[in-house]
Amino acid sequence: SQQGEEDPQALSIQEGENATMNCSYKTSINNLQWYRQNSGRGLVHLILIRSNEREKHSGRLRVTLDTSKKSSSLLITASRAADTASYFCATNRGDGQNFVFGPGTRLSVLP
Amino acid sequence: DGGITQSPKYLFRKEGQNVTLSCEQNLNHDAMYWYRQDPGQGLRLIYYSQIVNDFQKGDIAEGYSVSREKKESFPLTVTSAQKNPTAFYLCASNNGRSSNQPQHFGDGTRLSIL
Lengths: 111, 114
Description:
The complex is a heterodimer. Chain A has no helices and 11 strands. Chain A has strands at 5-7, 10-14, 19-24, 31-37, 43-50, 55-58, 61-66, 71-76, 85-92, 99-101, 105-110. By secondary structure, chain B is mostly beta strands.
């Protein structure tokens, strides 16, 4: 069963706007990771946030984690057309190396 | 450049045929994974291996088989028992010593039925 669920399923914005995607999960986790997938390609790791962290930044990316609500958000600021991709959250429970991926959010950034 | 190489990029399977997807990594990673991705969906774990000569079933292992004879290689065989094999298959690896390690992915193999 899916551990993570991204919301929304699809998002369309104009270049320069911010994009926010959310991820909810069901069980306790060791860490949560966000990945990007361009069409027909493999996934690329963006950022990892551990269960004892609340916020992390990487360039134009900002990730928050609320373990009490079992949710995370990914914010992409000043979006560009090149940010068009699917974004997935993946959770790791820490009881092994298994990661559980959500169904993803398809982001379209219009020029 | 270090990375994961999957081949072939496209593969077609005939009825009753077994096909093998290749996955090779030169990242010196201990752990390797196979995922299946259906259109518009997330990834589902087929098999994973944390060390050479050992592997475990994931959530959807039926109709698939793997081997891990070398650290660098983790081939996936889609057997004739897998009745709905059409999907995008992704191989990944990471340093298995810590669960706080991101996964590195290959560019996938798209499998279709003839």
